[in-house]
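hi! just following up on the protien thing from before. the input was this:
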Amino acid sequence: MAGEEKKALLGMTLDELKGVAAEVGMPPFAARQMVGWIYGKKVASVDEMTNLSLKHRKALGERYAVGCSAPVDAQRSADGTVKYLYRTAAGGYVETVYIPDGERATLCVSSQVGCRMGCRFCMTGKQGFAGQLTACDILNQLYSLPERETLTNVVFMGQGEPLDNLDAVLRATGILTADYGYAWSPKRITVSTVGVRKGLRRFLDESECHLAVSLHNPFAEQRERLMPAEHGFGIREIVALLREYDFTHQRRLSFEYTMFRGVNDTPAHAKELLRLLGGLECRMNLIRFHPVPGVDLEGTSEDDMVRFRDYLTAHGLFSTIRASRGQDIFAACGLLSTAKQQGLDLKDIK
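and the predicted 3d structure came back as:
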């Protein structure tokens, strides 16, 4: 394959690897051997698959590569949080955040280069949309993570809208939960969305992973000013769809609510949240706003967040305030990749 780019094995299913084995003249059982090397031992090259014959490794290596690549940059926080920057196969940059917390360690992964949702408070949204990640790009964020052996959970809450790249996200989560893959429980994975009409029902039907919905304002007109996606698929329609599904057993439904001073943190907003979500088995995650350059929004005070949380919980909507992590390393998604793509120092992003 001189002059041709090799195809990545990372991100392939067992059936697809059986096809690869047949293509390069290997016996069918070689697919199981490749699966073991890739998703079990997490090798970096075909040459490391030592139970394949030298002849078969050579034939495989001429057409295929594992497809993994190490982070190109990292920022480490005093609290142990690490933000990694990865280069995608297509040449873009995405961020991944490793968040240790006692015996738990969560990885926040990206699903797109940039994002087309255009949320007013999001640095990634300011980048615009630059491309989809492949399943290989998504899995590489775990595969090549220096701390990968400590991971207990993965959240699709990084750059991009996961349901706007649903095929790749479902493929990645499928491999993470497959017996031949990582063999994780779906309970270890949460996928976040602003609400994408064509993708939400399919995700709910085809995946057992937890779901988190970015809500941020219960009033449709106000939400649209923060999140243009409200115009295409409104929060009331989203909640109506969610009511068709059972969240009383293994799968968990949560709502993400970033709090902005004077924008969505009043008693009227709290009461409307109770009306909107009443009777739905769910929880609310209240999020402190990380300032974003060029965005004229301020975060709600700690005292007001506590009052908001306590009111919701007292009235039957269990709510928590998510701990802020990595503020000293520009924790808001999009800052590091924006700087890299524009050739800037982080302090130059205004």
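The radius of gyration is 21 Å.
The first helix runs from residue 14 to 23.
cheers
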